[in-house]
Amino acid sequence: MAAILKIFLIMHCFFVLHGRHADGMPNVYDVTEYGAKPSNQDNTDAFLAAWRDACGSASGNATLLIPNGTFVVGAVKFSGPCNAGAGGGATAVVIDGVLQPHLSNDHDDGDWITFSRVNNLLITGSGTLDGHGSDGSTNHCQAKPLTTTLKLNVVTNTIIRGLRSVNSRGFHVNIHRSSYVTAEGLHIEAPATSRNTDGIHVGASDHVTISDTTIGTGDDCVSLGPGTTDIVVAGVTCGPGHGISIGSLGKTIGEENVRGVVVKNCTLSGTTNGLRIKTWPGSTSSSIWAYNITFKNITMNDVYNPIIIDQHYCPHGQCSNITEPSLVQISDVTYERIEGTSSSKKAVKLLCSESRPCSRLHLNEINLSCGDQTPCDTEISNVQGMHDSVPQAPSPAPSPSHEQEANILLL
Ligand SMILES: *[C@@H]1O[C@H](CO)[C@@H](O)[C@H](O)[C@H]1NC(C)=O
Ligand SMILES: *[C@@H]1O[C@H](CO)[C@@H](O)[C@H](O)[C@H]1NC(C)=O
Ligand SMILES: *[C@@H]1O[C@H](CO)[C@@H](O)[C@H](O)[C@H]1NC(C)=O
Ligand SMILES: *[C@@H]1O[C@H](CO)[C@@H](O)[C@H](O)[C@H]1NC(C)=O
Ligand SMILES: *[C@@H]1O[C@H](CO)[C@@H](O)[C@H](O)[C@H]1NC(C)=O
Ligand SMILES: *[C@@H]1O[C@H](CO)[C@@H](O)[C@H](O)[C@H]1NC(C)=O
Ligand SMILES: *[C@@H]1O[C@H](CO)[C@@H](O)[C@H](O)[C@H]1NC(C)=O
């Protein structure tokens, strides 16, 4: 009886895990079938073997499954292209377990889990990517190299949905040279003191949507680097951290423009910045544009710099000459319906480049208060042709000395 039951279980597992079910159930490649175990052993080889079969599956709809349990894995590169069969269907990666890094494994290229050159991918599950980053205090001494938790490199038509990423040792998610990527329903968390733990960074990519995601880290919640175009950030709840940033831009020669960015329906709480565009000073930077950018319907809760353009961005004195003007041209930026509270007196800072003044900045319905009853201040330099709407409520601001400040409603 026991023997029969055992055989039945083995058969059952076989059909569930590798079966070509008559009912059209997709092919599932479970890493535990390839020798992965929830223990302290390095499961990299098992993960890669399961990926090779899932990615190589010709029948379509293959699923790489990382089931419940805590799995240790070194730097692992899931590379395509995948052999999705004539029936098509995305290759799915379902992570229900917890992944932790194998720390003695060299992450020489600075990435932990990489998907590379894959089209039509779904990465989802109820699991957690736990980067085992330090608590911030140890991150500061940079003993360990900065390591991105999840990198997408040259990936297209891809969805990342529902996962948790905690305590990364660098960026949590980095979307690089990719197109048509959606990141939704993610939960990203690291200590406020941890350095360079950006939630989601996008660089050199187009048609990327980040939505319905909660991010609290020690750096930018979302950062959009050079060469990002047609980006939507919607329904992101951010804090703690450094806010939602475009940039930094203009540090490296050969950077491409940033354009077509919409940030909407987001809430920022207790962050150092809210909506920031940051560019480096210095003549070594490339001459690029950041334009057609819209921020709308954003709630600020005690944000230090709710609206900031900083074209003199130079953290830790890393630029050669901070008085050299930035060569990044910022234009056509709309801020609309930005409400809430600033924890500093200067709720709006638009500090543009002396050699490339910002042009066509539109501020409509900016309703920010600065704690005590006094009006907020603004600091504005090198801005051309700002067009403001007429505020819908009487503005308590004193009659302005600068025309461009006239209709910013700062309560
Ligand atoms: C995996 O874990 C989750 C949460 O702990 C639980 O809800 C789910 O039923 C588990 N699934 C399996 C197959 O054990
Ligand atoms: C793959 O999945 C899609 C969507 O669920 C389905 O329409 C298609 O028939 C599946 N293909 C195969 C070969 O199972
Ligand atoms: C600005 O960007 C939006 C959103 O990406 C896009 O739909 C629109 O066509 C762009 N406008 C111009 C003038 O390029
Ligand atoms: C503004 O954004 C909030 C989320 O922060 C959302 O609940 C609300 O529906 C949005 N309002 C409009 C008019 O889009
Ligand atoms: C977000 O913004 C869009 C307008 O662009 C609106 O249609 C939508 O209802 C808003 N609210 C939420 C919760 O997404
Ligand atoms: C820094 O740049 C400014 C403006 O270009 C220039 O006048 C100044 O000489 C530079 N200083 C140094 C130390 O290079
Ligand atoms: C500004 O925001 C406050 C609360 O944040 C709200 O009570 C007030 O009605 C708003 N004013 C306008 C003109 O939108």
Automatic annotation (TrEMBL):
<keyword id="KW-0732">Signal</keyword>
<keyword id="KW-0326">Glycosidase</keyword>
<dbReference type="GO" id="GO:0004650">
    <property type="term" value="F:polygalacturonase activity"/>
</dbReference>
<dbReference type="InterPro" id="IPR012334">
    <property type="entry name" value="Pectin_lyas_fold"/>
</dbReference>
<dbReference type="InterPro" id="IPR000743">
    <property type="entry name" value="Glyco_hydro_28"/>
</dbReference>
<dbReference type="GO" id="GO:0071555">
    <property type="term" value="P:cell wall organization"/>
</dbReference>
<feature type="signal peptide">
    <location>
        <begin position="1"/>
        <end position="19"/>
    </location>
</feature>
<keyword id="KW-0964">Secreted</keyword>
<dbReference type="GO" id="GO:0005975">
    <property type="term" value="P:carbohydrate metabolic process"/>
</dbReference>
<keyword id="KW-0961">Cell wall biogenesis/degradation</keyword>
<dbReference type="GO" id="GO:0047911">
    <property type="term" value="F:galacturan 1,4-alpha-galacturonidase activity"/>
</dbReference>
<comment type="similarity">
    <text>Belongs to the glycosyl hydrolase 28 family.</text>
</comment>
<protein>
    <recommendedName>
        <fullName>Exopolygalacturonase</fullName>
        <ecNumber>3.2.1.67</ecNumber>
    </recommendedName>
</protein>
<dbReference type="InterPro" id="IPR011050">
    <property type="entry name" value="Pectin_lyase_fold/virulence"/>
</dbReference>
<keyword id="KW-0378">Hydrolase</keyword>
<comment type="function">
    <text>May function in depolymerizing pectin during pollen development, germination, and tube growth. Acts as an exo-polygalacturonase.</text>
</comment>
<keyword id="KW-0134">Cell wall</keyword>
<dbReference type="InterPro" id="IPR006626">
    <property type="entry name" value="PbH1"/>
</dbReference>
<feature type="active site">
    <location>
        <position position="242"/>
    </location>
</feature>
<feature type="region of interest" description="Disordered">
    <location>
        <begin position="386"/>
        <end position="406"/>
    </location>
</feature>
<dbReference type="Pfam" id="PF00295">
    <property type="entry name" value="Glyco_hydro_28"/>
</dbReference>
